[in-house]
Design a protein that fits this description.
Length: 516
């Protein structure tokens, strides 16, 4: 018997980016989209085009890059949003507009201040207009979980008639229990049978996002919206890796379903997103958490040694977690070994990226004895997601600290010039950032600063993430990687500055980000 394909709609780049502190720059989004394509995601929600010129730009670039997944752009049910969404994906091979409006009584009355008839009119207009840009239109009934089922049917009839082929029923506030989602999905999929695909988008406020998505599949949903590592607004969205591995591992229950996901790309995808956002999955997170495959208790270890299946229902290999101790890199490793190792970790680099990553690896290997897989992942990701280098750090000298005035001397290269400046600050980091501001002439406001050690040991790489707003414009993320935390911090700040400069013109056209 042929199996039904469950479409995997990934919204890491849109709902995932709404996680506090998870903003990504354009290069980072392009790398993530390329990885999602390798993972086999059917639909990549690349962003909300009307939010800002930066979001539009990222969706447009992703549309040019991705070939095998549908690129989707989100739009509120209003002409300006739909137009931006349509234009942002114009160059995509496979494209979809996803438009939405709230359908629950509480949202219609207090947020939209519209009656149900007005909501239907707006939804129909948005879908009809979206169809002038693309064939594939998805309509979402925001807060479907708390909407009246009669109204869901009425609005679905109207938008299907207007040209929507997917009806998404988000549990926007993560309120529903599995049996309730199952009942809603069953009623809606029986009602729309043959006219539209029913999709779900479950938030995780009660920790039920994945359970609700699985229940929805059993009851007729053929698309699930989810994110890598369960990122997303508030408590996040249903985690892609958990849904996919539950379907695979319990294929005895989900006998009639399959996905197009290459599960061996799950772990590389998870690591890429954790490295870029600086948000690590909790250690006990299912499938991709650090402890997901480690056995602590003696009884468990003994059992696993005798037969892995005593305590392991999933193999690490099946998600692409390959502990490769056969090839440990160090300062004598050559380019071929380096390339080979990266391939094992799931990276395929073009020649330029390989050369610059190898150069950075050599510098690191001179200072760090053991180079772990996570070091390599961080180093290569950092190299691949760099914006055009307007400013480049040459050297940093610090004077401090206890009792004295924290001060920094910074040497930076801009085109063919080397500029040296010195400055003081409230603390060392403040002195470094202020001195960089003096060189660039841009006034940066630091909104967030995070430092995370990439691997183990006193000589671990520090991965610094900063969020900086230059000249009061929307904040930009920068990453810096170095054994020395201060150097990593300076690099992160300059990285944010370079990203800002690469999009400065566009920011000026429409500087304020629209939040959903
Ligand atoms: O949670 C939600 O309702 C959403 C919609 C925009 C689909 O993210
Ligand atoms: Zn959502």
């Amino acid at each position: 018997m042929s199996k039904d394909t469950i479409k995997i709609f990934d919204t890491t780049l849109r709902d995932g980016e709404q996680s506090p502190g998870a903003s990504m720059n354009t290069e980072e989004k392009i790398q993530i989209a390329a990885q999602l394509e390798r993972l086999g995601v059917d639909i990549i929600e690349a962003g909300f085009a009307a939010a800002s010129p930066g979001d539009f730009d990222a969706i447009e670039k992703i549309s040019q890059r991705v070939k095998n997944s549908t690129v989707c752009s989100l739009a509120r049910a209003m002409d300006s949003d739909v137009k931006a969404a349509g234009e942002s994906i114009a160059k995509a091979r496979l494209k979809r507009i996803h438009t939405f409006i709230a359908t629950s009584p509480i949202h219609m009355e207090y947020k939209l201040k519209m009656n149900p008839d007005e909501v239907i009119k707006r939804a129909v207009r948005a879908v009809e207009y979206a169809r002038t840009f693309v064939e594939d239109v998805e309509f979402s009934c925001e807060d479907a979980g708390r909407s009246d089922i009669g109204f869901l049917k009425e609005i679905s009839d109207a938008v299907i008639e207007a040209g929507a082929s997917t009806i998404n029923l988000p549990d926007t506030v993560g309120f529903r229990l599995p049996f309730e989602i199952g009942a809603m999905v069953k009623e809606m999929s029986d009602y729309t049978k043959g006219r539209a695909i029913i999709s779900v988008h479950n938030h995780n406020d009660l920790g039920l996002g994945v359970a609700n998505s699985l229940e929805a599949i059993i009851h007729g949903a053929r698309q699930v919206e989810c994110t890598i590592n369960g990122l997303g607004e508030r408590a996040g969205n249903a985690a892609l890796e958990e849904i996919v591995m539950a379907l695979k591992t319990r294929s005895d229950v989900f006998t009639n379903f399959k996905t197009n996901i290459n599960t061996k790309e799950i772990y590389p995808s998870s690591r890429l997103i954790a490295t870029i956002t600086g948000i690590e999955p909790q250690p006990n997170k299912a499938i991709v958490g650090k402890n997901a495959f480690s056995h602590e208790s003696g009884i468990h270890q003994d059992g696993v040694l005798k037969n892995k299946e005593t305590y392991e229902i999933i193999t690490p290999e099946s998600i692409g977690l390959i502990k490769d101790d056969t090839l440990v890199l160090g300062k004598h490793s050559g380019r071929a070994a380096f390339k080979d190792k990266l391939a094992k970790l799931g990276f395929t680099l073009n020649n330029d990226a390989l050369n610059s990553s190898f150069e950075r690896f050599k510098i690191l290997a001179d200072r760090k004895k053991e180079i772990y897989d996570d070091d390599l992942r961080a180093l290569v990701t950092n190299e691949m997601t760099k914006a055009t280098q307007v400013y480049e750090l040459i050297s940093l000298q610090l004077m401090d600290c206890s009792g004295g005035v924290p001060s920094a001397a910074v040497k930076i290269k801009k085109e063919n010039d080397e500029i040296i400046e010195a400055g003081i600050g409230e603390g060392t980091i403040d002195a470094v950032f202020k001195t960089i501001d003096r060189i660039s002439g841009y006034n940066g406001k630091l909104e967030d600063y995070k430092v995370k050690s990439v691997s183990e040991g006193k000589d671990a790489l520090a991965n610094v993430t900063v969020k900086v707003s230059f000249n009061d414009e929307p904040a930009i993320i920068g990453h810096g990687l170095n054994i020395d935390t201060m150097l990593a911090s300076a690099r992160a700040y300059i990285g944010a500055l370079n990203s800002y400069l690469s999009m400065e013109g566009k920011l000026k056209e429409r500087p304020h980000k629209v939040m959903l």
